[in-house]
Amino acid sequence: MRFLFPLALALAMLAGGATAQPAPEKTTAVAIFAGGCFWCMEPPFDKTEGVIGTTSGYTGGTAANPGYEEVARGGTGHAEAVKVVYDPAKVSYEELLHIFWRNIDPFRKDAQFCDAGSQYRSAIFTLDAEQKRLAEKSKEELEKSGRFSRPLVTEIVEAGPFFPAEKYHQDYYMKNPNRYAYYRWSCGRDARLEQVWGSEAGGH
Predict the structure, then answer these.
(1) Could you tell me if residue 188 is left (phi over 0), alpha (psi between -120 and 50 degrees) or otherwise beta?
(2) How far is CA 144 from CA 56, 79, 89, 98, in A?
(3) Which entry of 37, 40, 114, 187 is annotated as an active-site residue?
(4) 75 Cβ neighbours under 8 A, 6+ residues apart
(5) How do residues 111-120 score in pLDDT, each as one tens digit?
(6) How far is the C-alpha of 197 from the C-alpha of 200, rounded, in Å?
(7) CB hemisphere CA count around 55 (13 angstroms)
(8) Catalytic site includes residue 187
(9) For residue 139, what pLDDT is reported?
(10) Which residue has the higher pLDDT, 13 or 110?
(11) In what order do the strands lie in the sheet with 79-86?
């Protein structure tokens, strides 16, 4: 008798034309990172296979719908950040973490390169428990690797609302390549990254 119900159910499904549907695969995912000026954090992710797009914006603060001038003054608690939309079938969150670390100075608290203030802090804003686990694991592995003599001060915090920055900030490095290159050089970003990460600096 115990075989009758599944058989009856299968026959009923066939009679009605119903078929079991597999759960749809997750085709995109989101990661949020802060590493100082958001202009400089877009390029390493944009050129990574599997990344669909990046958006510069503000997160980690208390004010709603903050603007650039407001955030730049340091009164909102927000950090300049990038939201990375990616295909997890082509690039993993662990790989994005690898890129993130090698594009920041993890030893500067509330600052990055020539930019000072909590709005330029480095941080990983996690969107779920798995991202938090992987972010903490990556930080711990770097600290235990023996390559650094100082602790990493980069924050790992739960993500809050993300507010896209003004249109002129998006893809700034492509819209204004000369100004972007001058800013990056004058801020000493690449020189410092090479000091910290050596040949891995800016790695992607």
Answers:
(1) left
(2) 31, 27, 29, 15
(3) 37
(4) 63
(5) 999 999 999 9
(6) 5
(7) 15
(8) no
(9) 98
(10) 110
(11) 155-158, 122-126, 29-35, 79-86, 51-59, 162-164
